[in-house]
Each structure stands twice: as structure tokens, then as C-alpha cells.
Amino acid sequence: MDYFLKLFLSGTAKGSIYALIALGYTMVYGIVQLINFAHGEVYMIGGFTALIVGGFLFSLGVSTPVVLLVSILAAVLYSAAFGFTIERVAYRPLRNKTRLSALISAIGISLILQNFILLAQTEKYLSFPSYLPELKFLLPVREYINSTQFIILVTTAIVMVALTFLIKFTRIGKAMRATAQDKQMALLVGVNINQVISVTFIIGSALAAIGGILICSYMGQINYYIGFVAGIKAFVAAVLGGIGSIPGAVLGSFILGWTESLGTGYISSDYEDAFAFIILILILILKPDGILGKNQKQKV
Amino acid sequence: MIHKNLAKELAASALQMVWFIVLLFPFLVMKVSVTAGTALVRFRWGSLPAIAIVSFIASFAWGRALEWNSHRGDKEQKRTPLTPIKEAIAAALARKPIRRVVLLVLLAAVAVYPFALGMYHTNIMITALIYVILALGLNIVVGLGGLLNLGYAAFFAVGAYTYGLLWKFVGPSFVSAGIATGWLFWIALPIAGTIAVVFGILLSLPVLRLRGDYLAIITLAFGEIVRMVLQNSGPVTGGATGISLIPRPWLLGLKLPPKQAATYIYYIVIVLVILTIFVVRRIEDSRVGRALEAMREDEIACEAMGIDLVRNKLSTFALGAFWAGIAGVVLAAQTTYINPDSFTLWESIMVLMAIVIGGTGSIPGAIGGALLLKLLPEYFRPLAQYRILIYGVAMIVIIIFKPDGLFPRNRKKYTFDAQATEPQAGEAQK
Questions:
Q1: Which of B345, B371, B404 is the last residue of a domain?
Q2: Diameter of chain A by CA atoms?
Q3: Of the candidates A99, A110, A121, which has its C-beta nearest B27's C-beta?
Q4: In 3D, which of A201, A180, A215, A241 has the Cα closest to residue A92?
Q5: Digits of tens for pLDDT over chain B (430 positions)?
Q6: A277 interaction partners in chain B (CB closer than 8 Å)
Q7: How far apart are CA A109 and CA A104, in angstroms?
Q8: ipTM of this complex prediction, to 2 decimal places
Q9: Taking each helix axis from N to C terminus, what angle separates B387-401 and A99-120, rounded to the nearest 10 degrees?
Q10: What is the DSSP string of B142-173?
Q11: Cross-chain Cβ contact B403/A97 below 8 Å
Q12: Looking at the partner chain, which of A100, A107, A129 has a beta carbon nearest the beta carbon of B39?
């Protein structure tokens, strides 16, 4: 039971990070029906920004809490700026073209960003300094959950609540929901579609940056390639829950986190990445629209 | 008026330049290295002017290009200096004798290639031609069927591993029976094709109910699972180290030295490419091909027209997988060594890129795209570092400005010939 609990909690922590990244996928998909293949790269950019800015501030001799705060802020701002720029450069000119062309453009952006970091920074794995503080009150239960995992859980919970509030109760949230439902109708009633899409990319990318810092602190290392695997997994999570649905993305992420952690714990650690894909295939066979996805009627 | 516009655009470009400088500053000017747990940051101020100039020019050019692109369809296409040349070539090629001569010259060039350029270039060409087969096969799935397959490398792996495993497990008994191991290649070809087809059908079963993006992601998952299984079943497949010393094909009973073997494989690949082109061309204008294209345009309308979607999808995946299996055997024979790293998602994306750059659904496109993607980097070694970066930029530029690709498909058009039908119409009036 102890072993199970341990695995369950680490799965929950993993799932919450996936959720932060998966939300960006699902929000963008809900609004422009595009698999933003470059989303994983945005999260990698967030991690690198935190590392660079944090390293610079440390060398200036700034105190740790300030470094933590500023580097997280910088990561969020830069990821958001990258998300915004990517949409303007690579997706907007293709808005009325086929979905395959936007997807290919997204793959292109993903390649560019990966190799940009590879060439401009390094191809090596860098150890990521743990910015996150050690929480004293967790000492009695540290066998089950460490402070990084705890901070991940709390951060994710706060972000989820904030996001739900934003989408349910604010003006821009309303505009986003309207655009997701029917772009043309939203345009007719005066929603500024371009602005809504930009905001969606900005929010999604900012969430990815938070996920990026958390996952880098959790793993303790960073590399230009980390965005790819995590991006694919987060996308799998979004599809599992039904892409386009925000609660679906969160649910899918937790299912994925638990499956991976229990699968590696009880079956074999060689196939850690395969569990994600196997469960994806199983769920899509049984329920092609994902767990919480709407079964959309199609017309010619 | 023009000056005013230009000034405005320059100002906009300057603004974008500032944006990009801020955006790229931490990555291009600062460089991080981590020693003993602390991150050190170094500044490279020298790159700042370069970023400024490049981003200014790039944003100006990008803006102009987008502007030009949006007005392209408005007026009659302007005659550029190249138009008469293009028309002359098209007219010449339309005549049969000239077309035959061109084809013959091309064939002759292809035939003497290994002797004229030597082993190094022959081996590069073989790799490129293997990609041509892959691109032609994937073109059936993506170009004709419109099913985005991101796990195509899996079938490639199935083909290569079929040959590898045949060598590993059947090879020894061949040796002890005194049969030349070079025959294994020819045995492996049809078997690999068949097994790849079986895998194609296996993959298409869960995919039958899915559309679009779900399909893309499930094929991706399939490709990764196949690779992971190959990597983790060490006793059978050799795990991450793979299988080595796979025999090259022998010329009848004769074992060839590496140089002659390369030439021999080159000719085998040429024959396979020609066979692939022939088959794909026959498929394109056949009943099956038209059904596939109908499915690509609209699945529901296609089903309403009485086309069996299930059979269509199965045959698409099976047809595409077959060529990948064949290409895999050739790859194993050429490199004599295979491991799971040769069949990553990146490989699938490369083949997809070849099709997109060449022109989706077009046979010359698939050939041209694959050759470009594989040959250019070989001959621009100094740029090898920037290769993938350039690919990424090229993909975006082509998909925005030339969505039909560099060699778009020339669709067969059935024109209504008024003169031929007139007498019949007259008869009907009487």
C-alpha cells in the first residue's frame, strides 16, 4: 500500500505538470482547431529563460527569493512573447488554408526552435539549479511526497482555479468561449477574433512556461530536446481527455501521470513512454472523441 | 505615395526589429553554462548587430512577401521572362518523339551514374533513392488518401528488421546448407513487403473511426511503440545495438566487393524506383486512386457516393506500408547495419517534408522533394549544422507561399470537346 501511495503521488505530480502543458494545446485547439506542435518548444524556451535569467541574477549577487520571482516572471513573459510571435508569423497567414498546412507549419516552427536553442546555447544536458525552496513542514511525510512535488501540486491547483475564473467570468473568457463555439458568429457579434486568438496563445504559452520551470526543477536538468517528449505526452493527455475540452485536458493528464507512474512501478521501466501511447490507442478505439470530448456531428 | 508607404513599412520593420532583438536577446547574446550546480552567463555582444540587421531585413521581406502573396490571385498572371521558356519546354515535351529522347537521355545518365562518379556518390544516391521510394509510398497515404501518417518510419523499420532478423535466424542454416547468403536479400524483399502490409492493416484497424488530427497522433503513437519494442526486446532484435553484418545482395552466386556491391544495389534501387513510379501512376488514375482522392476531399460525401471507406482506408495504409517495407530491406542491405535509432519520428517527419516540399499528391513532387532533402545536405556539408534550421524555415516558407509544392501535380483534365459532340446533339434535335 505504501508503495502504491508513493507511486500514486508521484503520478499526480507528473500529471499536474502534463496538465499545465496540455491546457495550452487544448485551448489553442478549441479555438483554431490546430495541433500546435511547437507548444512543447515554447515550454522548453520557458525553462531556458529561467535558467539564463536566474544564472545572470545569481552572478550579480541578488538574493534567492528575488531571483526565483524574477526568473519565473521572465520565463512566463518570454514564453508568452514566443507564443504570440509564433502565431503571428507561422499560423496567421495559414488561417484559412487546410489544416494539414497549418500542422506542417507547426512542425517547421518546432524544428526551428529546437535547433535555434541547440545552436545558440548548447546541445548538452545542463543541470537545472533547484530554485524551489525546501519546505520544512513536509519532513514527516517526505517518504511519500517531496517539496518539489508539493509545490507542483499547489501551483497547478492555483493556476487551474485562476484559469477557470478567467474563462468563466471575464470578458475575454466569454469571447474565447464564443470563438470556440462558432468563429463566424462570434465575428458577427463583434468579437475581435484576432485578439482572442493572440490572447489564447499568450495564456497557453505562459502556462507552458510555468510547467517548464516546474518540470525542469523536478528532473533537475534541461536540454534543447525536452520540449519534444513532454509536448507529445501533453498532447496525448489532451487527446485522451477530449481535445478542446479544458476539464478533459486536466483529467487526461492525471490519467496519463498515474498510468506512467504505476506502469513503471509495477510492470517495467523500459516502456515508460510506451504506456502513454498504449493507453491513448485503447481509449481512442473505445471512445474516438476522448473521455470528455463532444461527439461532434459532421456534415458535408 | 509610394514613398509614404515605403516609409511606413520601414518603420513597421524597425519596430519588429526591436521586438525580435528583445525576444532573442537572452538566447543569442547571453550564453549559459552550468558548472557545479551554478549557472554562469557569458555575454556575446558581437552578435547584437547581426541580430538587428537580419531581423530588420527578414521582417521587411516577410511583410512584402505576404502582401504580394495576398494579391497574387487578383489579376491575370503576369508574364515573367521565364514564361516563354517554360511554355517552350512544355510544348516540346508534349511531343512524343522529344519526350522519348529526353527519357532516353535521362535513363542513360542514370545508368552511367555509378561509373562516372564513383562509390561515394553512388552510396549517397542510393540513400536518396531509398527516400524516393518512401516518399512515393507515403504519397499514396497522405497525398491521395489525405490520411496524415506520422508513423511511417515504423513500416520502414519493419522492412529493415525483417531482413535483419531473417539474416540473424535463417542465415546460419543457409551457411551450413552451403547456400549463398546473398539470396536472402531476394527472399526478404517480398516477405518484408508482406509483413509491412500486415502491419499497415493492423495500424489501420484502430484508425478506421478516427479523423484528421486524432489519426495523426495515433499513427505517431504507433511509430513510437514499434521503435520502443525494437529497442527493448534485446534477445531478438539486439536492442539498441541492433543487428550488424547483414549481407549485401550477391550477383547470382558471386559475392561482390563493396564497390561493385554498391553499384549493384544502385541498379536494384533504380529498378525498384521505376517499379514504384509505375505502380503509383497506375493507382493514381485508377478506380482505387479516384476513390482515395474522393475520401481525401470529404469522407462523408465519399461514403454517400457508395465508396467503402473501411476498405479504402485499409488499402491506403497497406499500399503505403508495402513500399516502406521494400525500402527498409534495401536500407538494411546498403548499410549492412540497422538499429532502432534509424527509425525515429524524425525520419517519418523527413519523408512527410519531402512530400510537402515537392507537392502533396504529385509523383514528380515526391521524387524531387526526396532528392532535394537528401542530396542538398550531402553537398553542403559546411551548412550541416544549420541543416534542420533551414529545413524548418523552408517548410514554413513553402507552405505559406507555394502550398502546392515545388513540383505540383498536373491533374489529368477531361475537357469538353464541343466539336466532337455537336453532330450528336444535332441528331438529337432532329
A1: B345
A2: 64
A3: A121
A4: A201
A5: 556 788 888 888 888 888 998 888 888 888 888 776 677 788 888 888 888 888 889 888 888 888 888 777 665 555 666 777 877 777 777 778 888 888 889 888 888 888 888 888 888 899 999 999 999 999 999 888 888 888 899 999 999 999 999 888 887 887 787 777 778 888 889 999 999 999 999 888 877 777 767 788 788 888 888 888 888 887 888 878 888 878 888 777 677 777 888 888 899 999 999 999 999 989 888 888 889 888 888 888 888 888 888 888 888 899 999 999 999 999 999 888 898 888 888 889 889 888 988 888 889 999 999 998 888 877 777 777 788 888 888 888 888 888 888 888 776 666 676 665 555 544 444 4
A6: 221-222, 224-225
A7: 9
A8: 0.84
A9: 150
A10: IIIT----S-HHHHHHHHHHHHHHHHHHTHHH
A11: yes
A12: A129
Q: What pLDDT score does A244 carry?
A: 79
Three-state SS for B200-224 is HHHHHHHHCCCCHHHHHHHHHHHHH
Q: Among all chains, which residue has been given the C-alpha cell 536518396?
A: B128
In the beta sheet, which residues pair with residue B337?
B244
Residues of A within 8 A of B392 (CB-CB) are 108-112, 115
CA nearest to A59 within chain B? B40
At B417 the pLDDT is: 65
Does one domain contain both B171 and B316?
A: yes
Where a domain ends, among B300, B319, B345? B345
Task: Indicate whether B234 and B297 sit together in one domain.
Answer: yes
Q: CB count, 10 Å around CB of A183?
A: 18
C-alpha dist (Å) from residue B184 to A26, B260, B364: 49, 18, 32
C-alpha cell at B171: 542465415
Residue B8 DSSP symbol: H
User: Do the domain assignments include residue B389?
Assistant: no
Range of B177's domain?
96-121+134-345
Give pLDDT tens digits for A89-107: 999 888 888 777 888 888 8
Measured between alpha carbons, how far is B163 from B186 in angstroms, rounded to an integer?
10
Pick among A86, A216, A228, A284 to test the B interface (most B CBs inside 10 A): A284
Q: Each residue of A35-46: b (16+ CB within 10 Å) or e? A: bbbbbbbbbbbb
Contact assignment for A127 to B37 by CB distance below 8 Å? yes
Name the class of domain A2-131+141-286: mainly alpha
Strands (E), B13-128: 30-35, 38-43
Distance from CA of B162 to the nearest CA of A (A): 22
pLDDT value of position B79: 60
Q: Which amino acid is located at B68 in the chain?
A: W
In this prediction the pTM is 0.84
Question: In this structure, which amino acid lies at residue B425?
Answer: A
Closest in B33, B349, B396 to A109, CB measured: B396
Determine, for residues A111 and B389 on separate chains, whether the beta-carbon distance falls below 8 Å.
yes
- Angle (CA) B223-B225-B228 rounded to 5° is 110
Q: Domain for residue B308, yes or no?
A: yes
Domain count, chain B: 2
